Amino acid sequence: MGDTVIRNHIRRLRFEHGEMTQQQLADAAGCTRQTIILLEQERYSPSLALAFRIARIFGKSVEDVFELEQPGSRGY
Length: 76
Fold this sequence. Notes:
5 helices; single chain; 50% helix; mainly alpha; 434 Repressor (Amino-terminal Domain)
């Protein structure tokens, strides 16, 4: 399970929500802008609490924002 990647739609959702900046999202989610940058680059997997906070900001379910991609698969 070490090769599992968590894909996300944060960048697209930010722009769909009035071109929200990374800093605005970070402030609303209670994290740093650097965390948002790493999430968008898919270089960081969020905690469950952060994933829920981000999803709620966009009015989405966690599954609408984040996808679990396992080795050999191309998403769901």
